[in-house]
From TrEMBL:
Sequence ranges assigned to domain MobA/VirD2-like nuclease in this UniProt record: 17-151
Listed name of the protein: Relaxase
Any Pfam family hit: Relaxase
Organism: Flavobacterium cupreum
Annotated InterPro entries: Endonuclease_MobA/VirD2
Source organism superkingdom: Bacteria
Length: 434
């Protein structure tokens, strides 16, 4: 079992996210806590108003919505009654036993999971402290519930590999495999509400993981000037395919205005989330010298995807890190100068086959050089006749200096640091004034 707790500024968005899943027949509201009637007898207005009325007791609490997902191993398929018992126990253990909450069972991913929707304003108007709730309350609750209900443990499972939460969407969109709008909707529903992104590059870094692109068009296009937005499906090479769909045609209206509001609210990233990504990168370089491709693989094992932004010539000019564990997205420059695309490329070792072949060739030729070999022949042997004939600017000076260094005899002066020199011992009775 894995529990993830998210807080937000709008109970409306969290509520309608789950209710829209119900409309799509990929989720079901299976129960409620501290509501006057059963969940299956309530309409949308009754469900939502229960939250809104209690939030009115303390309008100073801005970050008031609580969205929890409880995730199970793919092999676990529990009844509605057991899922509700797990949800009720968990809410009680983390201090939300007296709060109103709704429980939704989702079946839109590769593993069984439920979503719990609640608020952190109590009946007396006081705010529930969410500081360190994961470590201090959720973790102990998770372990106790795993034991009590016989769940597959998130840690220490001896019979199989440890259960780790997979990305929110089981696989990338394949054009032609399913209806485009429905497939994109599924991705948007998960990404837009779950991940913390603060710009279009950061958002697209996540969407591209699932072959989707948010496209505003070129800056000179009518769509861009009119503040329009379309969503596209990408092929496996990252190129748009099929007919783009206007943002306004999706039921949750993921328009430019909507995204700009999300960018603003996601600006503040927790220091711990930033530190996690920075530490993962630092550890990757600490262990050994690695190539750019190897760095991507190392970070991927830690749940972090690395997305490069390239220009028309294929040169990397930007880098974005997508942390699927914390659902946070960071541009390299946000983490610090040393984590930018330029700095990362400089830190990574990269030798392509042509360079390696040249290195081996030079190494072989160096063994053939002796002190009697003329400098011009050394230059030609290492760099070809073009350098010897000075066809390259500065080649005469540069290669001459290199040849000088290669043929320079080794210095064998018997130099010894002053501190290590043995001082002569004076004879007894010997006077300094002799």
């Amino acid at each position: 079992m894995v529990a993830i707790i998210k807080t937000g500024y709008s109970i409306h968005k969290v509520f309608y996210y789950n209710e829209n899943k119900v409309k799509e027949n990929v989720a079901k509201c299976i129960g409620a806590g501290n509501y006057p009637i059963d969940a299956d007898k309530m309409g949308l207005t009754v469900k939502l108003n229960r939250f809104l009325k209690q939030l009115e007791l303390n309008e100073n609490v801005k970050r008031n919505s609580v969205h929890i997902s409880i995730n199970f191993d793919p092999s676990e398929n529990y009844s509605k009654e057991k899922l509700m018992a797990i949800a009720d126990t968990y809410m009680e253990k983390i201090g939300f036993g007296e709060q109103p909450y709704l429980v939704y069972q989702h079946n839109d991913s590769g593993h069984p999971h439920i979503h719990l929707v609640s608020i952190n304003v109590q009946r007396d108007g006081k705010r529930i402290d969410m500081q360190n709730i994961g470590k201090n309350r959720s973790e102990p609750a998770r372990k106790e519930i795993e034991e009590r209900f016989g769940l597959i443990k998130a840690q220490g499972n001896k019979n199989s590999t440890d259960f780790t939460l997979k990305p929110i969407i089981s696989q990338k969109i394949k054009y032609g495999r399913s209806e485009s709008k429905k497939a994109i909707t599924n991705v948007l529903n998960q990404v837009l509400s779950s991940y913390k992104y603060a710009s279009f590059p950061e958002l697209n870094a996540v969407l591209k993981q699932y072959n989707v692109l948010a496209d505003r068009g070129n800056e000179d296009s009518k769509m861009f000037k009119a503040k329009g937005l379309m969503y596209r499906i990408l092929d496996d090479d990252g190129k748009p395919i099929g007919v783009p769909i206007k943002a306004s045609l999706f039921y949750n209206k993921p328009t430019l205005k909507f995204l700009e509001e999300k960018f603003a609210s996601n600006k503040t990233n927790e220091v711990s989330n930033i530190r996690r990504v920075k530490n993962a990168i630092d550890m990757a370089f600490f262990k050994t010298q690695i190539s750019l491709a190897e760095l991507v693989q190392v970070l991927q094992k830690d749940g972090i995807n690395t997305v490069f932004r390239k220009n028309a010539e294929g040169l990397i000019y930007g880098i974005t890190y997508v942390d699927h564990t914390t659902k946070c997205v960071f541009n390299g420059s946000t983490l610090g100068k040393q984590y930018s695309a330029k700095a990362i490329q400089e830190c990574c070792t990269f030798i392509n086959p042509a360079e390696q072949k040249m290195t081996n060739s030079v190494s072989e030729k160096l063994h053939e050089i002796t002190f009697e070999t003329p400098k011009s022949e050394i230059v030609a042997a290492l760099f070809g006749d073009d350098f010897r004939n000075n066809k390259y600017v500065g080649s005469s000076t540069i290669m001459g200096q290199l040849a000088e260094m290669l043929t320079q005899s080794e210095q064998t002066a018997n130099y010894l640091p002053y501190e290590l020199r043995n001082k002569k011992k004076k004879r007894r009775g010997q006077s300094n004034n002799r």
